[in-house]
Design brief:
Helix content is 59%, strand content 0%. By secondary structure, it is mostly helical. It has one domain. α2 packs across α5 (128-144). The protein is elongated, with a radius of gyration of 20 Å.
Length: 227
C-alpha cells in the first residue's frame, strides 16, 4: 500500500494563519505612535509569508492533481482527489505528467490551462477572478525577485513612466488598508492584512472555479481543512 502527503491544504492553512497573525499585530499595535522594529519585521514576515504561501498552494494543488492521475493509472494509489474526473481526462493528464518532463517546470497558471484543455474546458481569462490570481503571482514575483527603486513621495498621475512596478496599479485599485508599520511609498505600504486576505481569497476562489469547471472537488474540501 502506498501513501502520500499532499501539501496544498497545508500551504493554504499556513497562509490563513500568517494573515491572522498580521491582523492581530495591526489591531494590537497599529495605532501606537512608536513601536520597535521587531513588530515591523514580524508583521512583514506574516504578510509576505501569507502571500507567498498562496502561490505555494496553487502550485502544489495542480501538481497533486496531475501526479495523482498518474498514480491512479499505475495502481499505486486509490485517489480520492481525481476520482470524479472522466477516465479520458485522467489518462491524458497522466501522459502529460509522465512523458513531458518539461511540463513540470511550466508556469503555474499554464498548468491549470492545460488541465482544463485536456478536459475540453477553459477559463474566462477576462474575469476578475483570473485577472486577480495573475495579480497574486505578480505580487509574489515582485517580492521574490525584488529590485530596489527610488520613488517620489508625491506620485504624479503618470507614475507608470517613472519606473514604478505594474503591481502598484493592482494594489492601488484594491484600496487596501495600508500597512501601519511601514511609511514608505507603494507597494510596501500596501502590504498589510487586507492585502494578504485578498491574496488568500483570490487564490481559493481561483481553485474553486477551476475545480468546478473541470468537475472535481477541491482537495482542501475533501480533507475538511478548516480555514
Amino acid at each position: 500500500m502506498s501513501v502520500r502527503l499532499n501539501l496544498s491544504g497545508y500551504h493554504l492553512k499556513a497562509a490563513t494563519l500568517q494573515a491572522k497573525s498580521a491582523e492581530e499585530l495591526e489591531t494590537r499595535h497599529g495605532l501606537e505612535k512608536e513601536f520597535n522594529n521587531d513588530i515591523t519585521y514580524q508583521h512583514f514576515a506574516c504578510v509576505t509569508g501569507a502571500i507567498i504561501s498562496c502561490t505555494f498552494f496553487l502550485e502544489s494543488a495542480i501538481n497533486e492533481i496531475f501526479s495523482e492521475c498518474a498514480d491512479k493509472f499505475t495502481g499505486q494509489l486509490p485517489s480520492d482527489l481525481t476520482r470524479e474526473l472522466p477516465e479520458f481526462t485522467r489518462s491524458s493528464m497522466r501522459i502529460i505528467w509522465e512523458y513531458a518532463p518539461r511540463f513540470e517546470k511550466s508556469p503555474t497558471l499554464d498548468k491549470y490551462d492545460v488541465a482544463l484543455n485536456l478536459a475540453e474546458k477553459k477559463f474566462d481569462k477576462e474575469s476578475e477572478n483570473y485577472k486577480g490570481v495573475r495579480g497574486v503571482f505578480s505580487l509574489r514575483n515582485y517580492l521574490v525577485h525584488y529590485k530596489p527603486q527610488s520613488f517620489k513621495l508625491q506620485r504624479s498621475p503618470d507614475f507608470k513612466e517613472e519606473g514604478i512596478p505594474d503591481i502598484v496599479e493592482t494594489l492601488t485599485k484594491k484600496n487596501f488598508k495600508p500597512n501601519p508599520f511601514i511609511g514608505s511609498p507603494l507597494p510596501e505600504h500596501e502590504l498589510g492584512y487586507d492585502c494578504a486576505k485578498w491574496c488568500i481569497d483570490t487564490s481559493r476562489n481561483f481553485l474553486d472555479d477551476f475545480s468546478q469547471r473541470i468537475g472535481m472537488t477541491p482537495f482542501y474540501v475533501i480533507c475538511k481543512i478548516r480555514l
